[in-house]
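Structure ticket #2291
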Amino acid sequence: MTGAEFDDLAEAEMTDRDGSVGRLNDHFPALLIRRALGLNEPLTGRRARFLMTSYTHDGNWLAHGWKDSLRIVSEVVPKVRGVDEPAVWVQEERDYYGDCESTNRFAVGRSRVWVEQYVSSTTPAEDPGSVVWLDNLNRDPNTPELRTLHSVQGHPDPVGARVVVAGDSVETDLRAVSPVRMTNDGDLAITVMAERDWYRWARDYPAEPHPSLRWEHASNVWVE
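Resolution: structure written out below.
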């Protein structure tokens, strides 16, 4: 897929992070992962991942990996002490949802941050048992990546996974909190909860029931 096609997907993002959109119809929810460097759009509140690297004692590159479950909590800052390039402030999602005014945040170079966003895709998810994963073995991490979500039906254990509900409207920032179950009417259903409540359960439970905890038809739920 070309860079231009990814730009088109980005413009068709399923939500603007503070609202919902209509049904996906013949489209499928997907996760688009792009490098923050070069993006000319607001970053505050975006899900993100950070590129970690390690080196030998001689200074040679050894390995790289990802720290995910982060949120960007600032726009680009030109200068931050200890960072040798323009930076953004990021926060662990647990702290982001628990207390947005928390000082438990840190500045990282913009070039090492990748932004995650939900988009709609015309391509359905591949069979998890197929060999498509081989295509990613030597994929350049600097290029955008599109990961189509899978239907939660048939998932062995979705508890704790991020999910998207695509019914009359599309709702994101949810977590699955049960396996798929069969209702008394013979329908397949799953319990979901707002991600904010999922992180705050220790503070709010058991004093009050979680207001966002609810059943959804499994056919409407897609899992990362």
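Closing remark: Residues 1-148 form one domain.
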